[in-house]
Amino acid sequence: MDTLHLFLEGPGRETIAVTTLDAQMDSHSQAAAEATRRTLVDGDGNIAEQTDKSGYRYQFRERFGVWSLIVSD
Description:
- It contains no helices and six strands.
- It has 73 residues and is mostly beta strands.
- It has strands at residues 5-9, 15-26, 35-42, 47-50, 57-60, 67-72.
- The protein starts with a strand and ends with a strand.
- It has a six-stranded antiparallel β-barrel.
- The chain is globular, with a radius of gyration of 13 Å.
């Protein structure tokens, strides 16, 4: 099976590689299916937390702006 590579694209189209640090099921969701909330980390240890329900928008604690998830094989 191919390995998926995760990147976050931020303001100015800066792109950085990230990995999954944590994924938790959100049992408080009003949706019929439970939502998964992900936490990503870059190579320098900066943590990005998911900010939307679909899982494509993230925000770093130490960086400005909203970052978009890019998945590549």
